[in-house]
Design a protein that fits this description.
41% of the residues lie in helices and 24% in strands. The chain is α/β, with parallel strands linked by helices. The protein has helices spanning 2-17, 20-27, 31-45, 61-88, 101-118, 170-176, 225-233, 243-251, 281-293; strands at 50-52, 57-59, 93-99, 122-128, 142-146, 155-168, 190-193, 201-205, 211-215, 220-222, 238-242, 256-257, 265-273.
């Protein structure tokens, strides 16, 4: 197999370089050795792969077809070598992360210190925002996202799970009443994320199992979940929030479940990163760390 790869490499390099002399320089071997490898390949295949003249060397029709496949095989072999090297090398370098402000402030920031102490050769640039960033074009190594993965071109690994539920303060329900079913929400003051791609629309799992959509302008729209929670605690309306935001307030009695009988909307929390044959060690190290850090975080255990 090694001889086959060497022959293949010699042939492909001759095509790339346009001749045996330059191919020999590229490979760091003698011109006669390159010629021998190519001749051996042609003899084994029983086909002439190169047109040889005194001035130039060019692939035959068969040679050109073989070159395309050979180059793919050689590239795959090179990536396989790079994969092993990458997986054995220590994680290092700048790790640039995009994460929603709510999750970053409340749950990612507290564990970053432990990660940096464990991986001292990695530096982290964590960008907190509430918009959907383009990882590759904006120069991010990875992002943390909650809910359905809209971009199927990215790779994703679940690091935890959360639930979403509608919550409001006891004072709000005392003043405006408690909705008994989804349709009753049309008569209540709703608090929305202004940065949601779907606009002011809630997709709620009904008791029947179907997903209902509630579309309303809402009384208040904010691009920050913590601000929505604060507004709900203050009695300004009903907010639809993930458990990593509302759980403490729910336990303390600052908010209550708006419609307790509705099924909870379970959502994954994912680390997403660009596609590729192998993952950068710094990205892999951080994702593995997060999976372990949030291993005890159930849907309502934040």
């Amino acid at each position: 197999m090694m001889d086959r790869l060497t022959e293949m490499e010699a042939f492909a390099t001759v095509v790339d370089q346009g001749g045996f002399t330059d191919a020999a320089k590229k490979m760091g071997i003698s011109k006669s050795a390159v010629s021998k490898h190519v001749s051996s390949l042609e003899a084994r295949l029983g086909a002439r792969l190169l047109n040889r003249t005194t001035r130039r060397v060019s692939p035959t029709e068969i040679g050109l077809a073989y070159y395309d496949r050979a180059r793919r095989v050689l590239n795959d072999a090179g990536e396989a070598d790079a994969l092993v090297t990458s997986m054995q090398s220590a994680p290092s370098g700048l790790l640039r992360i995009s994460v929603a402000t709510d999750f970053g402030v409340n749950h990612l920031s507290p564990v970053l210190g432990e990660f940096l102490q464990e991986f001292s050769d990695i530096t982290v640039n964590m960008v907190l925002n509430n918009r959907y960033v383009e990882l590759i074009s904006e120069g991010f190594d990875m992002a943390i996202r909650v809910g359905e993965m809209e971009d199927s071109s990215l790779r994703a690994r679940k690091i935890a799970e959360t639930t979403r539920r509608m919550v409001g303060s006891p004072g709000y329900f005392e003043k405006f009443g408690r909705p008994q079913r989804i349709d009753d929400l049309n008569h209540h003051k709703l608090l929305h994320y202004s940065s949601q791609a779907s606009g002011n629309v809630w997709k709620l799992p009904a008791a029947s199992g179907e997903v209902r959509q509630v579309r309303t302008a809402g009384w208040l729209s904010v691009n920050d979940g913590q601000s929505l929670l604060n507004a709900a605690i203050a009695g300004l309306g009903i907010a639809y929030l993930p458990s990593f935001l509302y759980s403490d307030a729910l336990t303390q009695g600052l908010v209550e479940d708006a419609i307790p009988d509705l099924p909870l909307d379970r959502q994954g929390i994912y680390a997403v990163y660009p596609p590729g044959r192998f993952t950068q060690p710094k990205v892999r190290a951080f994702i593995d760390f997060l999976v372990n850090a949030f291993a005890d975080k159930g849907p309502d255990n934040w």
